[in-house]
Amino acid sequence: MRYYVISGPHQGDTGTMTDGVGEIRIPHPSMRGVHCRYKVNSTDAMIEQPGLEPGVQLHYAGDCAE
User: Fold this and answer.
1) For residue 39, what is the enclosing H or E element?
2) Where would you tag: which of 18, 34, 47, 53 has the fewest CB atoms within 10 A of its CB?
3) What pTM value is reported for the model?
4) Across residues 43-63, what is the average pLDDT?
């Protein structure tokens, strides 16, 4: 499933995630050994807009150490 990052350090990024996964972690762009956590917000999860592949919106949920 396609994802679209709506907020946080990776805002504007897109990628592919496994169906049914509610959270992903992406390495922080400026802090070594830290990952940014992104979660699907159930109220506006699906995104279907002209010109974009259908997918889910991910919102920044904080950082965590590796």
Assistant:
1) strand 34-40
2) 18
3) 0.79
4) 82
The per-residue pLDDT for 43 is 64
Report the Cα–Cα distance between both ends of the chain, in Å, rounded.
24
Task: Read off the tokens for 12.
Answer: 């504007």
Q: What pLDDT is attached to residue 48?
A: 75
Q: Position of tokens 């920044």?
A: 60
- Alpha-carbon Rg of the chain, whole angstroms? 12
- Estimate to the nearest angstrom the gap between the alpha carbon of 42 and the chain centroid: 13
Nearest by Cα to 8 from 60, 46, 52, 45: 60
Calculated CA dihedral for residues 13, 15, 17, 23, nearest 10 degrees: -10
Which region, left, alpha or beta, applies to residue 12 given φ > 0 means left and ψ of -120 to 50 means alpha?
A: left
pLDDT value of position 1? 80
> Residue 45 is encoded by which pair of tokens?
């999860």
